[in-house]
Amino acid sequence: MTCKICTNSTAKVFETTVLNKYTVSYFECTACGFMQTEQPYWLNEAYSSAISNIDIGLLSRNMYIQPILLNIINSFFDNSGSFVDYGGGYGVLVRMMRDAGYDFYRQDIYCDNMFADGFDVQDKPENQRYDLVTAFEVFEHLENPLAEIEKMLTYADSIFFSTELVPLAQANPSNWWYFVPETGQHIAFYSYKSLELIAQKYKLNLYSNRRNLHLLTPKKISPAKFKLLSSPRTAKLMAILSKKPKSLLPDDFDQLRSKYASASR
């Protein structure tokens, strides 16, 4: 089996039970350290619900990421621009960011938009370009990572994303929770070196806290500043001190009220 990132050979490192029924092999690239499952034939079953019932951290994860995202946008991007949350799920983060005054839109072809109705990328002109793509807890779900990254880059030149990096020690389900084979949805696991190769392939710079938050961008920024701004403690402090844009919530409400009033006539 070849590596989906660098096409070098892989070695089987363990097998485990996925969805409590399938014995699945996991492989690690001998060159870049990227880990992947065997061909994931179980995905239709795994995504019978787009978001797993055991993903109980969804709300706390968005509360954790929002102040960090505000920092990253305010420091490195135009906070009056437009942004797209790729694989945005129920639209929780899009709604939170719009409430904070940032023009965010959701992209997700698999999940119902429960909290950001009217603010999908489909509601914008076709081929709209954005200042930044965000993709939080998406990369580990990708069956074809490079093809999906190329789709993200059709929206913006920069991608700010989260995914846990493979620990340096040999990882398996007994010592790293991130595999979560019970859901069958996590099928791709990245080393720092594999992210470096992705950056090189698309002529981008990689900035990372070397744990879970990463930025691919053509911009040249201070790696130390990125790490500082991606710290939850710094993010919360700066969220208090920074000047806040006007919330989009009132305007969004008026827009949606008009939309549904017209639809009912």
Describe the structure.
Helix 2 (58-76) crosses helix 3. The protein is α/β, with parallel strands linked by helices and 265 residues long. The strands form 2 sheets. A 6-stranded mixed sheet has the order 5-4-6-7-10-9, sandwiched between helices. Strands 1-2-3-8 form a 4-stranded antiparallel sheet, with no helix packed on it. The chain has helices spanning 43-46, 58-76, 92-99, 145-152, 192-201, 223-229, 232-241, 249-263, and strands spanning 10-18, 22-29, 35-37, 82-86, 103-107, 132-136, 159-162, 188-189, 205-208, 213-217. The chain has a single domain, classed as Rossmann fold (3-Layer(aba) Sandwich). 31% of the residues lie in helices and 19% in strands. The protein contains 8 helices and 10 strands.
**What's the main sheet like?**
6 strands, mixed
Question: Regarding quaternary structure, how should these chains be classified?
Answer: single chain
Overall spatial form: globular
So what's the CATH class?
Answer: Alpha Beta
How many separate structural domains? 1
Ends distance: 57 Å
The total count of helices amounts to 8
State the low-pLDDT regions, or none.
Answer: none
Record field, number of beta strands: 10
The value of Rg in angstroms is 19 Å
The CATH topology comes to: Rossmann fold
Helix and strand composition category:
alpha/beta
* Sequence of secondary-structure elements: EEEHHEHEEHEEHEEHHH
Helix content: 25-40%
Strand order of the largest sheet: 5-4-6-7-10-9
Mean pLDDT: 94
Strand content: 15-25%
Name the CATH architecture: 3-Layer(aba) Sandwich
